[in-house]
Amino acid sequence: MDRLLLNTAFATYLLSVLLYLAHALLRRPLLWRSAFGLVLAGFALQTVCLVLRWIQAGYLPITNLFSTLFFFSWALAACYLYFEIRYRIHAAGLFVMFLNLLLLGFAVPRNPAFAPLIPALDTPLFTLHVVFSFFGYALFAMAFSLGVLYLVRRTTGSELLPELSLLRKLNEESIFLGFCLFTLCMLFGSVWAQVAWGYYFSWNIKGIWSFLVWLFYAGMCHAKFVRRWQGTGYAILSIAGFGVVLFTYLGIGLLMSSNHPLE
Q: Which UniProt keywords apply (predicted)?
């Protein structure tokens, strides 16, 4: 059942991306409405799959590469739906959902088996830490997408994309919300570490890079008030920041020895 739901969700997102692409070429409102409907359907399928896996495992399964990619994709879809429903960004969904499709596409061929939960992870503090972490990542991914779209809109002047002022506003909102959630991730992670191991912060590679991510986006929250970083500069920072996020999430988890391994 999990595999069927996962494959169906992937196919649904793929079709939505194709319809968004068709809308970009043909500019028919029916196409983006249909694409948005498919995103809602894909998100619903992912949500059902997540709930079923949670019930089967007895804990929120976000402990290995498959489950984190799946949850990252689900969180990004949730963030996109929030911005679409609130701001009607329409064609901008093409790039966001393509990024979401890549995340889910990397998860699909992997083993969805549940990883054993060690006692130190069997606590609500760990769950809150990971949930806030990936929703922060998802909002940073959203900011990355909006930054790319801002540069495309500025370069091409395409009227298909939202106005520069709206893209700038949404980019700044994504960064701010992502920073707030990632701050909660760091706080819950510190309390969890104190309970589990007796210290709030350890100088391991994952902890250091997570702090660097937090510091980078804290700087971005201030950079939006500095004239030379507004607009194009902020879009470039959003793109660069997501590179730091990906390294912290995948680079360290897969390539280095840390207390947050991905298998």
A: Cytochrome c-type biogenesis, Membrane, Transmembrane, Transmembrane helix
